[in-house]
Design brief:
GO terms for molecular function: DNA-binding transcription factor activity; transcription cis-regulatory region binding. By secondary structure, the protein is an alpha/beta fold. It contains twelve helices and twelve strands. Helix content is 40%, strand content 16%.
Length: 347
């Protein structure tokens, strides 16, 4: 009877094989495999090319044993079709890549306690070092995520349990109102976001507070759902009111819809009605006329989320090794003045 063929697979190439192939030290190859930044670009390219040629795959489990980290972040998101969520998620991925970390994404249908907790459990079972959660609006600030894993949340509500990163939504609303009142408008109408959106409600409160502080009338809020189509629908109603001379929208896409509705009604922007948006997306710059908007730096939000999480992970880039207490980081916004605002028409 012929001897049975061994079914034991041949071990794959090792880091020693890669080092020998490129004529470099194992330490240099290890730095490339671990995503270290202290490697010359041309050296990194040579090592990565050799890894591909030889079929070498870094052993993440062994790496975790050596460094104490998996170099992986879990990201829980909701409605990535929305501009804000997708831009911040992209910035998180970019920020993680810059320090040699990967990102595993879970998109939840609704950001409530049960779904977010389930997503967190799934991610922590996939060997991640920490969690970043975008828009946990259905999760109360006192909600506790899985123990012993660092968490950072993009949330406007401070929490005693984890670090939050957000932008100054309230201040942005006030900034838009102050700009329009400063041009001479008697009041500012507001196209708000959904009533269950925490950032949208904070922007609305800033709008209301600024009008009240100036002694200006506070019109009723009309609401959209963040889409340009909803802006077109509510803008059609606003365009029929001859007393409306200034409109501030809670995001740029709704502002684009409002501007189209005003155009269709024969009301010129900014000669008859001034319009301001919020977010500072690329679309705003190429509208006609270019949209004045409150600028939100999505890239900065993503970078701060990654940095705040890494600071809590022992052995990660930027970590001091000490326990980091929860804190609420509020990033500033600014006004980009373009051609969609002007003094009100003479009556």
């Amino acid at each position: 009877m012929p001897p049975r063929e061994s079914r034991t697979s041949r071990p794959g190439p090792s880091i020693t094989d890669v080092a020998r192939h490129v004529g470099l030290s194992q330490q240099t190859v290890s730095r490339v495999a671990n995503g270290a930044s202290n490697v010359r670009p041309e050296t990194r390219d040579r090592v990565l090319a050799a890894m591909t040629e030889l079929g070498y795959v870094p052993n993440q489990a062994a790496r975790a044993l050596r460094s104490g980290t998996f170099a992986s972040i879990g990201l829980i998101a909701h409605r990535l079709s929305r501009t804000g969520e997708s831009r911040i998620a992209e910035a998180v991925v970019d920020g993680a890549r810059d320090v040699g970390y990967t990102v595993t994404l879970v998109d939840v249908e609704e950001p409530d306690d049960e779904r977010v907790a389930d997503a967190a459990r799934r991610l922590t079972n996939q060997a991640v070092d920490g969690l970043i959660i975008l828009r946990a609006e259905g999760t109360p600030p006192e909600f506790l995520f899985p123990a012993r894993i660092p968490v950072v949340v993009a949330d406007s509500r401070p929490s005693p349990h984890y670090t939050t990163v957000t932008v100054d939504d309230f201040g942005g609303g006030a900034l838009a109102v102050d700009h329009l009142l400063g041009l001479g408008h008697r009041t500012v109408h507001h196209v708000g976001g959904p009533a269950d959106s925490v950032p949208g409600l904070l922007r609305e409160r800033g709008w209301r507070a600024a009008l009240t502080a100036a002694g200006a009338p506070v019109p009723a809020v009309v609401r959209g759902d963040w889409t340009a189509r909803s802006g077109l629908e509510v803008g059609t109603r606003l365009a029929q009111d001859p007393t409306v001379t200034a409109v501030w929208c809670a995001n740029d896409e709704m502002a684009a819809g409002v501007m189209l509705s005003l155009h269709r009604a024969g009301r010129r922007v900014p000669h008859d009605v001034s319009v301001v948006g919020f977010d500072g997306i690329e679309l705003a710059e190429v509208l006609y006329p270019p949209l004045t908007t409150v600028n939100l730096d999505f890239d900065a939000v993503g970078r701060h989320l990654v940095a705040a999480l890494l600071a809590q992970i022992p052995g990660a880039p930027g970590s001091g090794g000490d326990e980091v207490p929860p804190r609420n980081q509020v990033l500033p916004v600014g006004l980009l003045e373009r051609e969609s605002t002007a003094p009100p028409p003479l009556r």
